[in-house]
Write a structure and sequence with these properties.
Blueprint: E1 4-7, E2 10-13, E3 18-24, E4 33-39, E5 46-51, E6 58-60, E7 68-73, E8 78-83, E9 92-99, H1 103-106, E10 113-114, E11 118-123
Parallel strand pairs: 2-11
Antiparallel strand pairs: 1-3, 3-8, 4-5, 4-9, 5-6, 7-8, 9-10, 9-11
Length: 124
């Protein structure tokens, strides 16, 4: 079993920045592709970004490219999402996920583990 705990959410103004963290339990963090998903009020959960086991490959949804950066530190069992130039439409609960399949497969939401979510609110 793997536990994932997100942190770093909060309230920011449009144009601001925020960094989310996902801390994973256990000693097998590097065995999983990791990703961030979000769910806005009244909308379905959607893929935000994923990162491969070594951190060498990343995928982003088009709307966050150039603004968000996903990264991971396997030595710390932690994944990050640096969010810059935030927009009100980024407002959502952000979820950390881990999957035993490829980084691409993870973009579909096929994950083995999910965190509890952290709220990100961007005001205009």
């Amino acid at each position: 079993q793997v536990q994932l705990v997100e942190s770093g959410g909060g309230l920011v103004q449009a144009g601001g920045s925020l960094r989310l963290s996902c801390a994973a339990s256990g000693r097998t963090f590097s065995s999983y592709a990791m990703g961030w998903f979000r769910q806005a009020p009244g909308k379905e959960r959607e893929f935000v970004a994923t990162i491969s086991r070594s951190g060498g490959s990343t995928y982003y949804r088009d709307s966050v490219k150039g603004r968000f950066t996903i990264s991971r530190d396997n030595a710390k069992n932690t994944m990050y999402l640096q969010m810059n130039s935030l927009k009100p439409e980024d407002t959502a609960v952000y979820y950390c996920a881990a999957g035993s399949h490829t980084t691409v497969v993870l973009t579909t939401g096929r994950a083995d583990y999910w965190g509890q979510g952290t709220q990100v609110t961007v005001s205009s």
